[in-house]
Amino acid sequence: MRLILMAVALCAALMPLSLRAETAAAIAAANAAKIEKPSRQTIGPVIEALVASGDPMAAAVLQAWASKGLGLRKSDKAFFLIMPEGDGYKLTDLTGADAGTAPKSEISELKPNAGVRGLIATALVQFTLSDPNPAKRAEALTSIARDPKTEHLAPLRAALAGETDPALNAQKARLERLLTLRFDPDSAQRVTAIDGFGADLGIDLRGALNPLLATTRLVATGDAPPAANIANELSPGRDLTEADAYDLLVAANLAPARLTAAEQKAALAANIAGGMVGGIPLADLSDQTARDRAYTALEQAGTVPTAATSDEVTAAVAAHRYYDVYAEPDPAVTGAAKAALDRITLKQGAMEVVDLGLDALSLSAIYFLAAIGLAITFGVMRVINMAHGEFLTLGAYTGYVVQQWVPNYTASILIALPLAFAVTFAAGVGIERLVIRHLYKRPLESLLATFGISIALQQLLKNIFGTQARPLTAPAWLDGALTFNDVVSISYIRIAIFVLALIFLCFFLWLMKRTRLGLEVRAVTQNPTMAASMGINPDRINMLTFGLGSGIAGIAGVAIGLYAKVTSELGSDYIVQSFMTVVVGGVGNIWGTLAGASMIGGLQKVIEWMNPSNTLAAQTYMILFIILFIQFRPRGIIPIKGRAAGD
Amino acid sequence: MSSILEVSGISVSFDGFRAINNLSFSIGPAELRAIIGPNGAGKSTFMDIVTGKTRPDEGTVTFGERSLNCLRMSEAQIARAGIGRKFQRPTVFEDQTVTENLTLALKASRNPLRVLGWRRKLIDAERIAALAAQVGLADQLARKSGELSHGQKQWLEIGMLLAQEPRVLLVDEPAAGMTLAEREQTTAMLVDMAKTRAVVVVEHDMEFIRRLNCKVTVLHEGSVLAEGSLDHVTMNPAVIDVYLGRG
Amino acid sequence: MKQGILARNPSVLIFLALLALFTLIVTFGSEAYGAGFVSTSFVKTLGKTLCLCLAALAMDLIWGYAGILSLGHMAFFALGGYLIGMWLMYARTEEIVVAALAQDALPATAEEIRQGIATQIFGVVGSSDLPLVWSFAYSLPIQLALVILVPGLLALIFGWLAFRARVTGVYLSILTQAMTLALALYLFQNDSGLRGNNGLSGLQNLPGLGDVGQDQLSVWFFWTSALALAGAYIVLSGVVGGKFGSVIRAIRDDEARVRFLGYSVESYKLFIFTLTAVICAIAGVLYYPQAGIINPAELAPIASIYLAVWVAIGGRGRLYGAVIGAAFVSLMSSLFTGGRVPAIDLGILRIDWVDWWQVLLGVVFVLVTLFAPKGIGGLFDLALHRRSPDRKGAPLGPEDGSLQEKEALE
After folding, report:
1. Do strands A78-85 and A70-73 pair parallel, antiparallel, or not at all (unpaired)?
2. CB pairs A-C closer than 8 Å
3. A406 & A530 share domain
4. Buried/exposed A358-397: b ≥16 CB within 10 Å, e otherwise
5. Is residue A176 domain-resident?
6. Shortest Cα distance, chain B CAs vs residue C187, angstroms
7. Which residues of A lie closer than 8 Å to B, measured between beta carbons?
8. Residue A241 placed within a domain
9. pLDDT tens, C135-154?
10. Least CB-CB distance to B96: which of C250, C259, C262?
11. The pTM is what?
């Protein structure tokens, strides 16, 4: 069998060479009668001949034929390509030469039926598949891949040998395997094709495999299973509800339709006689059992059609067996397809875990960026800055404004980052000098005061920039994603944010561990009084710290603005997560913030993955988790250690 | 001698630093005891452990005739059981009147619902007046305690401790910031209190301790270095070495 | 007992007298029962304001007195609204469905009515089943009991977890904020069983009182709100005036010290947290039938922060301060955002109050926090020449040492 097929394929491939001499015009002339009144049964050889002719006009002729563009001159039974022009047609003969015009009455337009048009289309596929233009060939492959049909298999195989472009060749080969596993008449071939893919993650493969495993529900009377490729047997109550099972019975004409409550009501209402229905007073019919009794009475009287009662339904459902049956009759193929899909699912699961890890990592990086400024101010000054979210927004808007002046996106981002830092640093220092400074030792009041700043600032930004989202466009080189396979990919923007977070981590470590400022900040954090007596000015340190925290928020704002909508509410979307990060991570330590961000980001992604339809629920569960987490680590993952923490 | 508070073999570390190292200590039901030691000897940590603020890594703390295990109790439970503590700085509720401060401390049910239904009876008023008189604040009852002088606050706190009627009293540097006359009064009061209950005084001031005239425990590096009368411990060469000798 | 409270707190009498006077003025000015110079919608606004005052009282108790800055109390408020809204919507829909089914030839079955109600209420979220949480929506008494039980239990569980772990200060504020957010996000889902972001609507129609006009209903609700506020004011004056109040203020100022006095600080906090949550829920029960609609946006963390803002502007640590703050700020807010205040033209900039009110509020709030920590209530002290104790520059709240200690405590 396979040998024969191969021979056919070989012939198809060789034919163009052997029959090159014949022209489309000659073939058409020879088969004029068949072309004029084509039928699906007889036209095959003509189309094949046209295909095999090698005449460049053949494709044009076929195309015209399929789309009512081929006409027959009534006077001499000659074929022309016709194009409506004014009242008549513009004619082109089958060699491609212009043949003048003709009035409509002289030409009869050929209208092949759908079956013939299908054959022509299939034949055309082969033309496009072997088109000298690679773009055309690629287009043809894409169109086949989009809607594969049995008829495509042979032309595709035929076109395989002549392919010179290696990429297209691979694509053709893959498509051929995909078509083989679906449409090849030989079961063994199909199984080989399926197994050949292994655990390939391509969506096209899954798209090809899934229809093989499509099932339909089947009802069988008696115990013997039907002679079909059974996927599995269903037991009512466990695999399908009784109602569904009965619906199947009704659909298979094995049982009478069940009466819906509405139908029953209508039937009863139609048979009211003297305030009674079926001998039961109307007033009593506010009860389902009474209605059933009334209906049964009407049934017995023969006034309404018989309908199944719930007892009958149960009995009928129990008397039948239910199966899921594959549409594909060959068990070998379905078995192989199932095994392949299982392999794919397993591998996909593993890949999803990797992808999830990447997602979590990038989300963590965002939370880290958003929270780090907050953690600094809280760690050093014990001030929760509720306006932190607005600093993020301010940073993002700074980026937007810069892009209004500097059209080059790369340059604008490079300007925006330090500028956002400067703007929010200045805003932070201003707020510290004007407000926070007066509220040290009163953390709850500084929280509320910064909240006041937050609402004022948010509204101010709204008044300036409006409520609609402003674009902050990433440079083109950050477009797209780093794709590993169909499952694992990560967008370049997220990678950039991740890198930015890393840079900040390093910068911060350097600042705290290697600079005089860092030393002083650490000293003030641990013991402000002692630090002051050592000649450190805590006022200055607090100011710089608050400015630094705010400045980092500005930079984080630019980063977030690159992929989120820049509105005046951008900050409030991140503020609670940032708080959570600080609370979970513990204060006074950059690693704590990092751990907190990783945990919050990771957790959120994991919960989203378990319940993908619902990101809202994911956040709810995450917050619940955090509340519970605080029970066990009230001071965060990495708390301030030592005696200083206790006294 | 039976003891009301028994601390045995406790150790606690902060971040690797061993603040208390296998410390054992006991005090009788009506005894005055002074604890001295250089800075960092573990005096405050010791009090934190007894009052339940800090949990030791190992060891036991038992209280009373029925040997209650203090390590399983919260600060509030320990306080209710009868261990009172006076902090180094006067910590009274500055926004409340002297009467309110004393009422808070008065021995009564601490259950929120009972407190909600609590109404001052004549006997409470008398008790408060008596306590105020005892600490010399009889004519300050209606004043907010934030308006009192530093010494008066110290007194008020002692009054609050008395109102609690504790069986063991931990007093942290009671004489700090007091005038000489006030010190003398404090000494007398501590000695007086120790007649009916155990009083542990942590103090730096040797002169003050000498006036208390009681058994002294010397702490050093988290454990007991010496114990006995003040004269006895001041002659101990180890004590002289770590505490006095360097001077 | 009541006599004693009133005698000890003359401000209670003054407050009650003013509230009564206010109620009389509104009643005789209303369209239903008086001259009609107070429009029905303004009666509703005033009634809602009274409910907000009630919530502010609760906020003052927990923040002003107990020092716990909860940023989640509006969640309990909204929860109360949801719970009463469920009954209102169910019973009202039931009336409509029963009326519709009565047109049929046959009397309706219970199942048909249920189905009809479910389709009516949940059609908007593409469901026709009554979710489990609506199990008791048919019964007013049960739903009223739930109004107390659900927010109470939620507060109890949350508070128990938080206070047991000794979460204090800003940590606790953030945690309560997170709780509110979690609840809001949950309710935003369509499958939460509470109609997702559509919320509950049509709550202004009282079941069984279809022929009573809104003009009358609004006054009735106004009365009820005033009564609730008066009752809560009396009860809370009693709570804060006695030893209990003394204990919670002591907890606010120095929690560790209170612990060493033998008070179980956590129990007290839990008690206050739960009590105030229930008060907020009751306020919500009265508020939302006047508002007519409730949706998850009402639970947004910002709502709870506004509650704190009202109390701060009014003056915390005194009950009348909370009431004044809530009434003043929320009325000003509706005045300014209602577009009834003329815009100011500054030449280059036009201050349109609808847009600039929030900016003004934020700035005023910062100024109040900085320069008038006693809020509007401080004016009364000035008038009465009442001075707070001179603490020689010591902070109002807990001492700085004890604060650090509290935050780091395990």
Report:
1. antiparallel
2. 187
3. yes
4. bbbbbbbbbbbbbbbbbbbbbbbbbbbbbbbbbbbbbbbb
5. no
6. 34
7. 641-643, 646-647
8. yes
9. 888 889 999 999 999 999 99
10. C250
11. 0.80
